[in-house]
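W.,

You were right to be curious about this one. When I first looked at the sequence I had no strong expectations either way, so I just let the prediction run and decided to look at it fresh. Below is the sequence, 775 residues in total, followed by the output.
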Amino acid sequence: MPDTIRQLTLANGLQLTLRHAPRLKRAAAALRVHAGSHDAPAKWPGLAHFLEHLFFLGTTRYPLEDGLMRYVQALGGQVNASTRERTTDFFFETPPTALAGGLMRLCQMLAEPDLAIARQRDEREVIHAEFIAWSRSRQAQAHHALLQSVAPGHPLRAFQAGNRYTLPLQDPAFQRALSEFHRRYYQGGQMVLAVSGPQSLDELEQLVVPPAQLFASGTRALQRPPPPLGTSCNRQLFAHEQMPAGAEQALALLISCLNDSRPGMWLAAARQHCGLQAIKVETLYAFAGQLLWHIDLTLGAGMPTGQAMALLHGWFGYMQNADFAQLNREFGRLQRRREHSASAMELARRDSAGLPFTALDTQGQHAFTALLASLPRSDLGRWQFPLSEPLLHTRLPETGECSLPGGLSISDALPTARQHAALLVRWQVPLALKESLHAVLDQALAPLKARCERASVQLQFSGAGQGWELRCAGVASAVVTAIGIALPLLKAPPADCWADCAGPSSEPMPIRALLEQLPNAVAGLDVQAVAGSRQSQPQLDRLWQQVTWHGLAVGFDADAQQALSAVLQGLPGHGGAPVPVPPLTRRWYTVGGYGSEHALLVFCPLPAGMEAAGRLLAHLLQGPVYQRLRVELQLGYAVFSALRQVEGVHGLMIGVQSPHASPDMILEQVVTLLREHVTLDVPSQQLLADQFDEVVMSNAEVVEWAWQTHLATQPRTLDDVRKAILNVRQHDLERLQDALLDGQAPWTCLANAAAPPDFQAQQREIVAPGATLLS
């Protein structure tokens, strides 16, 4: 059943967009305020970003412990906000039954914020910590340097995030400016609120209108037009002025074509002739007829950028004369697939931004013509728009009778009515070959990954944990098609994939680097660094003859299983069973090479039989961990805690990234928190149990739960998990805390610093960028 949409404007001027999508399992809201960093007084950079932070600190009606963030997180939902140049966005996703509570908290905190000086002072330090992290990030600095290419005087060149020195809290003029910015822009006429969910349009309207009426009445305030972008942009940065309406959507079509890796298009030609290994195309700015976007290229060693850009100009020339109707039809099919695959939050955010998942309309077509006309062009290259993308076909390929491969398990955790399927395969690979051959195979799959991303199919090939893992998720027919293309590439990578690959184009922030290494650490991998040994096709052939694999298929109906079985006849290796990770010991891993900030990730495996108590303990600790480490102690801005299953092992995970607190200081506070008494809260216990209902879990969450259960070799159902959580008692929590605090508990700690002297455990080191574990 297709989505239905209703749009209306309330008496206070607020515009509502309601979307009824029966397939959704969650509901979401996205509120866009048409004001951002460039609308705040230039005298106080960061004022708009600072105000965004202050909204989340609680109000008289909904204090911090019952505010939007705690409310949504307690329900297993998502919540966030973003301040851009000319817009500020607030968005959350919850189970449908919790939408009303989330909407009331969102609207109330924006309409009636508490701007007390004490809370401003504390939050300014958080803003300053983010500024320090930004100033130390090579990726952020490269982005800032890129924006220096625009004309002097354009606000894009200026620093807008704020810090301790740009936010003078004691200055009455600053406080007046803060209040005036809120009064001027946080009123009905300046806002668009979009809501999506499985509820009917009438139900959604009844839920959203009362909280939306909390905003003061107003009309749309005029945002200052920006000065010209200028013409000093470099060859990979494209600036456009005086573009017609619909330019942002027109650019989306162009970017979609740029990311098309099929023969005949620019990406395929650049891979073949210029050694292109990766591309990232990003819209940097779109406002008042101005459009700024950038192409970031990762090329092979010694390959000049100029050749790839010359080819691009030739492709721009071809696009000016291409069959627009054909381009737009393909774009429309891609957009419809994206809409079908989108989460409730993604749908709400697109609706609030006025960027629907559709082909270009007449206005968009005019903007596309204007966009192409303003791009450099030449006659270089031979181009051809490909036939329709097979990944978008909905029919399954016709196959004969095939039995399921012996290493494949079938999960019924996700009903086929969800129209979402996933295949996960894990090969057990000798550690000496895992890293070196992974780079070759990942490069072989790169063009297919690009095609899958365009067609809303998730294709991943990772080397974390005990071997190689291939994941593919999306519409069942697309998954079968993608796997059919992927397996021959894995068995026989193209010749150019055996050349040395360029290093990663950007480094992750430290805490993300630790998260990436956690599966290796939990698997207990002690890998001697292999000194640049070159691999070959014969070596890969021998490996595929020897390795064993196991896999899991989720969400496939009988016909799709049959088609998948036929495709998997070409799966290399021999079917087997999951291999549990070896017994864990207390270890500290030092992860080097990622940023200058401190970061610590603690993973505390749960004792046998205490999974349910661990889930509840993690749930009850989530708020206190955030309150203590981020709000009270201000140890860092990236603070989180949760129960995670990694390599089939359940564990309590706590992570912190800090610009000033060392990992041993953070660890001390984590231990202190775990020593504090945690009281069983029955309503919270019920809320947690309710999260393990397939009806409210996202499809991706169900797939991940099924896979981790498969890896743990402990068959269970979601109903088992719910019942076990509801059976936890106070003494179970206390017994678990005692077990976790035992000095011999097998904690796995990852940090970008050495272990503190009193951490009695084995110590290992992980070296970037290969991130290899060394004994």
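Here's what jumped out at me. Residues 408-507+522-575 form a domain with the Cytochrome Bc1 Complex; Chain A, domain 1 fold (CATH 3.30.830.10). And, maybe more interesting for your project: Residues 527-532, 766-775 have pLDDT under 50 and may be disordered.

Coffee later to discuss?

I.
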